[in-house]
């Protein structure tokens, strides 16, 4: 299996899978040209929000209702809503009444099975020997798998109706052996599958004893995708999005101003992840990088466009590739007695880790350590209280700020720090701080939140719109 690709389709795109059938999954391909591709699918758009919780608002879904349930009606009603939404989703993309009925029967079987499982779990945990809290991770994984199993089943029905030899590869562990590793789950499910003669449609969720959600939570589908590509020796791993990887957000700087990246490396992908703009989860990128599998990010609805290739190769010429930004909070610990004393940084890191705070960057001087973090103010208030116990005489503050970042595989010789500060000042704006590491892959500008967007536009104009690679190199 050395000539195939492993390709991932996200949830928003899955809601238009009937369009993808005509443009990506089948398109103009015929016969053997249809095959040599393994597709990993996410749940239809919005389904995982209903199963777990809304990713942006935090509104509880089935999982949240079950975890906090004072009565059984809340999570039962939430599970009914999931079933209705699943049925509505596949009615939108399936053309044949028989396929719609098969998909509806599949949904009812899985929803009823999950309901019975949760009822039994609640009954067992009504006894004092068992605690529901000890089973919530498994509950979260059980519910997550429903969405991907449904979308994969529907996709197979749709492709088979169109004459494609499609095959469901269900990694969700439904009524199967549970005590297997991720590698065993994938290799066991792929045994006997020939992607050069059939089209495997694989669930983005994989049940395994490591528990993907323990570390990756809702980023699990990219972990499944990357391990599948690595374990099967894929020629290339491809992520299909609804947009191209571009030099900035086209909604911010204008679609006519952005440039498709075209080519970059995993170092840049890691910097994007750090800025909350994931091309791929960093752990998934690590798996592909170690397996020497290049990653391609494409626009699912422009299959003729090669998209952006991400590999381990260095840039041929220094150049800025992308400008992005992120709202942050600056946690500042000032202690006059810090000079020459070890242990402050380790203690701060320990507290931030305990509160699950993601660190974006940090700076320090003789008596101050500042961490720029991606977290809520309420979380940071708890962090401050913990730190005050360790350092009662320190001044500990949290301040809402923003960070703009200029990123490229090689920024050597481009004077990005200096030119960036000039671009910001020329726009009548001001940076609070700026940092550049010795690896020269990114430069970060610290700002007040209300000027992040105009700063990104100013930086993009300077480094992308007004510069060609040749000009940048000479700058």
Automatic annotation (TrEMBL):
Domain Aspartate/glutamate/uridylate kinase: 5-299
Entry keyword set: ATP-binding, Kinase, Nucleotide-binding, Transferase
Protein name (record): aspartate kinase
Enzyme class: transferase
The organism of origin for this protein: Salipiger profundus
E.C. numbers: 2.7.2.4
CDD domains in UniProt: AAK_AK-Ectoine, ACT_AK-Ectoine_1
A biological process term (GO) from this entry: lysine biosynthetic process via diaminopimelate
InterPro entries named among the record's database cross-references: AceGlu_kinase-like_sf (IPR036393), ACT-like_dom_sf (IPR045865), AK-Ectoine (IPR041748), Asp/Glu/Uridylate_kinase (IPR001048)
């Amino acid at each position: 299996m050395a000539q195939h690709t492993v390709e991932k389709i996200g949830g928003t795109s899955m809601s238009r899978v009937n369009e993808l059938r005509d443009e990506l999954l089948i398109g103009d391909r015929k016969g053997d040209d249809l095959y040599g591709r393994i597709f990993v699918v996410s749940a239809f758009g919005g389904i995982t929000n209903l199963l777990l919780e809304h990713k942006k608002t935090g509104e509880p879904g089935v999982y949240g209702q079950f975890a906090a349930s004072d009565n059984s009606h809340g999570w039962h009603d939430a599970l009914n809503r999931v079933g209705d939404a699943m049925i509505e989703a596949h009615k939108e993309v399936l053309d044949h009444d028989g396929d719609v009925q098969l998909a509806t029967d599949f949904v009812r079987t899985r929803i009823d099975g999950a309901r019975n499982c949760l009822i039994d779990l609640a009954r067992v945990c009504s006894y004092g020997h068992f605690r529901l809290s000890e089973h919530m991770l498994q509950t979260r994984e059980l519910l997550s798998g429903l969405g991907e199993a449904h979308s994969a089943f529907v996709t197979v029905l749709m492709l088979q109706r169109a004459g494609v030899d499609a095959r469901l590869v269900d990694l969700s562990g439904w009524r199967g052996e549970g005590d297997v590793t991720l590698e065993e789950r994938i290799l066991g499910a792929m045994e006997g599958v020939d992607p050069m003669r059939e089209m495997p449609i694989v669930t983005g969720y994989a049940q395994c004893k490591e528990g993907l959600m323990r570390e990756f939570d809702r980023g699990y589908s990219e972990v499944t995708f990357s391990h599948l590509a690595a374990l099967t020796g894929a020629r290339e791993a491809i992520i299909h999005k609804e947009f191209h990887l571009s030099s900035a957000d086209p909604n911010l700087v204008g679609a006519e101003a952005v440039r498709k990246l075209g080519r970059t490396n995993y170092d840049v992908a890691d910097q994007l992840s750090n800025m909350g703009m994931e091309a791929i989860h960093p752990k998934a990128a690590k798996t592909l990088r170690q397996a020497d599998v290049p990653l391609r990010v494409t626009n699912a609805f422009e299959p003729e466009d090669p998209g952006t290739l991400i590999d381990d190769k260095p840039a041929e010429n220094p150049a800025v590739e992308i400008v992005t930004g992120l709202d942050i909070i600056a946690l500042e610990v000032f202690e006059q007695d810090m000079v020459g004393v070890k242990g402050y940084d380790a203690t701060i890191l320990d507290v931030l880790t305990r509160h699950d705070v993601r660190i974006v960057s940090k700076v320090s001087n003789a008596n101050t350590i500042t961490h720029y973090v991606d977290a809520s103010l309420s979380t940071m208030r708890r962090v401050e209280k913990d730190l005050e116990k360790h350092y009662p005489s320190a001044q500990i503050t949290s301040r809402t700020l923003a960070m703009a970042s200029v990123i490229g595989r090689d920024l050597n010789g481009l004077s990005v720090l200096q030119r960036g500060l000039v671009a910001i000042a020329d726009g009548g704006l001001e940076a609070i701080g700026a940092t550049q590491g010795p690896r020269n892959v990114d430069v970060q500008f610290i700002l007040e939140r209300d000027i992040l967007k105009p700063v990104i536009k100013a930086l993009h104009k300077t480094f992308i719109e007004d510069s060609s690679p040749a000009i940048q190199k000479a700058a």
